[in-house]
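WARN retry 2 of 3 for item q-0093 after timeout on previous attempt; input resubmitted unchanged.
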Amino acid sequence: MRWCGSGSVWRAGALLALLLPLWELGCWGLISASGASGTQNQAQHTAGGPWELLRRHKRSWVWNQFFVLEEYTGEEPLYVGKLHSDVDKGDGKVKYVLSGEGSTSIFTIDENTGDIHATKRLDREEQAYYTLQAQAVDRLTNIPVEPRSEFVVKVQDINDNEPKFLDGPYMAGVPEMSALGTTVVQVAATDADDPTYGNSARVVYSIISGQPYFSVDPKTGVVRTALPNMDREVKDQYILVIQAKDMVGQMGGLSGTTSVTVTLTDVNDNPPRFSRKNYQYMVLESLPVASVVARVKALDNDIGPNAEMEYRIMEDGPGVFNITTDEDTQEGVIILQKPLDFETKNSFNLRIEATNRNIDPAFVHLGSFSDTTTVKVTVEDVNEPPVFFTQLSKMVVSEDARVGISIGRVSAHDPESSNSAIRYSIDRNTDLERFFNVDALSGVISTAKPLDREVNSVHNLTILAMESHDPTQVGKGFAVITVLDINDNPPVFAIEYETLLCENAAPGQVIQTISAVDKDEPPSGHRFYFALPPSVAGNSNFTLRDNKDNTASIVTKRGGFRRREQVLYRLPVLIVDSGSPALSSTNTLSVSVCDCDSDGVAQSCGAVAYTLPAGLSTGALVAILGCIITLLVMVLLIVSMRRRKKEPLILEEERDVRENIVRYDDEGGGEEDTEAFDMVALRNLNVIRDPKVRRDVTPDTPTFFPYPRSSSSLPVYKTLPDNVVFREFIWDRLKDADVDPSAPPYDSLQTYAFEGNGSVAESLSSLESLSTDSEQNYDYLSNWGPRFKKLADLYGDGKSVFS
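OK item q-0093 returned
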């Protein structure tokens, strides 16, 4: 089979010389399939040159490369090449089959002639070559007549891609004042065309915009400075346009551009400069210390750390003024360090120097990186308060000083030229108890009350001094008065001692060690002396031993102490201090006798319970018990009788008998008020409980209507009219009250303002009935017993069974 390429026309000059030696082998070379075996056999017996070796390995299929020009824009399919087999005799029995990459979508083959065409436009940048397989088969049986072989269709490049800067646009910086040729940045452009074929991918660089300040290397793309000493303060940013062109920059080449922004970074090449050589400021002499007096600033065209300043005062200011740098604004802040006094000095001329904090040695030759200016500060006079000659006065006074004695003197003056008179006073917030006075004119401080060092040993007074002509001007001074101690407090026991003495204590035993305290504070310290008063010095129980160390020991003189004989001993102790004059006090030490165990630990103290010498007889104990029981029985009987005693149910005639009217805010609603009162309870009257008759007592008042004993005699309310039902119900309740001694002995009248329209029982109010022309008969009240006698007299016809 032969392979015939389609490029013999447009590549004839270059390829023809290479293809001529192979022409006898076919278009690219041919070996028939039928002669393959004979050739191999011949190679086994024949030794020849290179042609013989080539014939030994050649096959019927010899593949080669086809070249297809990319970006073909013709209307007809592009001819690629021709495929032909030696087996094909031209009789149409052989069919050519194409497979592989793009065999159906891009490439087609004429099965009769073997011509291969490309049906689509190819792009080498997408795919540079395609690998295909070719085979000749029998048209009728589809049986391969030659083995499958593989060939490559390579896409031939054309210059259809411009260079591109993949990392652009670029940002770069270079220090200002840099030397000529300083590297700034390197740019790089890529071309997607085939770098192995022609000049399509060979790029050169050039600068379109940015001259004459910068240049670019045509081959490497390195951007450099083209002028020396470029000044950031003149122009700090440049925008360059760099071009990359393929075809080595020749005519017809494609190009691409990018921008490079070059920023000149700052260097310290500018010294600070004050805008003025003289500044003037005015301040009040009353300006507080640490206040800001003025602000000055030296200008520096540099930025950042290169513009940071340090300020210092060179003349006439140190000590009174100080200057610091405001880190935010780089200003020099002048601060007052000492109070100003117009009368002493009314102006200051400050010479201030500003220096760069970070100086670059490379630019020292440009000159000094500092500048100076003069600041004149004028002090204005103000009306100042009086000033004490001594701000803090220290004085001492004895605590026994008499009232009115002078302690010391304070003095103040008016700092103004007017020298106004001064008046003095004490700030009473510092002397609430008014122990001291000050003379308003002279400033002499004296005592106003007796002093006690033990209460307050130091007094801190604030003395006020004010001008006579202007009381608003007040100066303050301070006086510290220390109260000196005298021996005016006797020594006493250090604590309240509880001394325990065992009954088995031996003579000479120390039972207590005592000490003393004294509120006074002598300069040489305390020294106490202990002794027993002469009145008890000769007692036979205890003695005292002074230990010479401000303590003393209480020692027993004898043994055999007994609680039954004496429970508590009181021992007076005399304590004397070492003051001048010496003071003493007598303190009493209580000694309790206790029962102790073998280790001397107290078990019980205090009085002992005495027992009778002889026990009581059994008869005496029984008699005492019987008396006690008899008394208890009598008390119970008295209580029981008091409970059984009752008050008469009917009040005496001569006593004031009144009705007890109870008013309720919640009036009844009658039968129509179905929520306030359940009428069913009144109508269901057959459910009547047994009368609650007291079983333990007999009623004092006789019952005129004996209560029925059997339930068979109970009236049946269901069969009675409504008005009779209520009347019978009330009668039954009346009988219950007659036999119940715990019922209240007063009439109870309930008044209802509204009874409800259409009530069957009509109004129940007796007062309302009385105020109307009611014809109701109340004679039945006379039959209700003594309790209703008063009602019967009021509402009846005047006749009563009791009259």
